[in-house]
Design a protein that fits this description.
It is a single chain. With 78 residues, this protein is an all-alpha fold. It has one domain. Helices cover 77% and strands 0% of the residues. The chain has 3 helices and no strands. Helix 1 packs antiparallel against helix 2. The protein is elongated.
Length: 78
Protein backbone atom coordinates (compact mmCIF):
# COMPACT_ATOMS: atom_id res chain seq x y z
CA UNK A 1 0.00 0.00 0.00
CA UNK A 2 1.39 3.39 -0.89
CA UNK A 3 1.62 6.45 1.34
CA UNK A 4 -1.25 8.28 -0.34
CA UNK A 5 -3.59 5.35 0.25
CA UNK A 6 -2.57 5.07 3.91
CA UNK A 7 -3.07 8.78 4.51
CA UNK A 8 -6.42 8.73 2.70
CA UNK A 9 -7.62 5.77 4.80
CA UNK A 10 -6.44 7.48 7.99
CA UNK A 11 -8.20 10.75 7.14
CA UNK A 12 -11.40 8.96 6.15
CA UNK A 13 -11.48 6.80 9.27
CA UNK A 14 -10.67 9.78 11.49
CA UNK A 15 -13.41 11.90 9.88
CA UNK A 16 -15.96 9.12 10.22
CA UNK A 17 -15.14 8.59 13.91
CA UNK A 18 -14.86 12.30 14.73
CA UNK A 19 -18.06 13.40 13.01
CA UNK A 20 -19.98 10.28 14.01
CA UNK A 21 -19.07 10.49 17.68
CA UNK A 22 -19.66 14.24 17.61
CA UNK A 23 -23.13 13.72 16.18
CA UNK A 24 -23.94 11.14 18.85
CA UNK A 25 -22.60 13.35 21.65
CA UNK A 26 -24.38 16.50 20.49
CA UNK A 27 -27.60 14.58 19.94
CA UNK A 28 -27.41 13.15 23.45
CA UNK A 29 -26.70 16.56 25.00
CA UNK A 30 -29.51 18.29 23.12
CA UNK A 31 -32.11 15.55 23.52
CA UNK A 32 -31.30 13.71 26.77
CA UNK A 33 -34.76 12.15 27.14
CA UNK A 34 -34.62 10.29 23.83
CA UNK A 35 -32.22 10.70 21.00
CA UNK A 36 -33.22 10.89 17.37
CA UNK A 37 -31.25 8.47 15.25
CA UNK A 38 -32.07 10.31 12.03
CA UNK A 39 -29.53 13.09 12.61
CA UNK A 40 -26.84 10.60 13.60
CA UNK A 41 -27.56 8.50 10.53
CA UNK A 42 -27.37 11.55 8.25
CA UNK A 43 -24.06 12.60 9.81
CA UNK A 44 -22.55 9.17 9.20
CA UNK A 45 -24.01 8.89 5.70
CA UNK A 46 -22.88 12.33 4.56
CA UNK A 47 -19.42 11.78 6.03
CA UNK A 48 -19.01 8.49 4.16
CA UNK A 49 -20.33 10.03 0.93
CA UNK A 50 -17.95 13.00 1.10
CA UNK A 51 -14.96 10.84 2.04
CA UNK A 52 -15.64 8.36 -0.78
CA UNK A 53 -16.04 11.19 -3.30
CA UNK A 54 -12.91 12.97 -2.15
CA UNK A 55 -10.53 10.17 -1.20
CA UNK A 56 -11.84 7.07 -2.94
CA UNK A 57 -9.52 7.43 -5.90
CA UNK A 58 -6.46 7.07 -3.67
CA UNK A 59 -7.32 4.04 -1.58
CA UNK A 60 -10.48 2.26 -2.66
CA UNK A 61 -12.40 3.94 0.18
CA UNK A 62 -12.73 1.24 2.81
CA UNK A 63 -12.61 3.66 5.78
CA UNK A 64 -13.30 0.73 8.10
CA UNK A 65 -10.25 -0.98 9.58
CA UNK A 66 -12.17 -4.25 9.97
CA UNK A 67 -12.84 -4.38 6.22
CA UNK A 68 -9.23 -3.52 5.41
CA UNK A 69 -7.87 -6.21 7.76
CA UNK A 70 -10.30 -8.81 6.41
CA UNK A 71 -9.36 -8.08 2.79
CA UNK A 72 -5.67 -8.07 3.70
CA UNK A 73 -5.98 -11.47 5.39
CA UNK A 74 -7.54 -13.09 2.32
CA UNK A 75 -5.04 -11.45 -0.03
CA UNK A 76 -7.40 -9.11 -1.89
CA UNK A 77 -5.29 -6.02 -1.15
CA UNK A 78 -1.54 -5.51 -0.83
Amino acid sequence: MNKKALVAEFIGTFALCFIGIGAIASNTLVLPQGSSLLGVAFAHGLTIAVMIAGLGVFSGAHFNPAVSIALLSVGKID
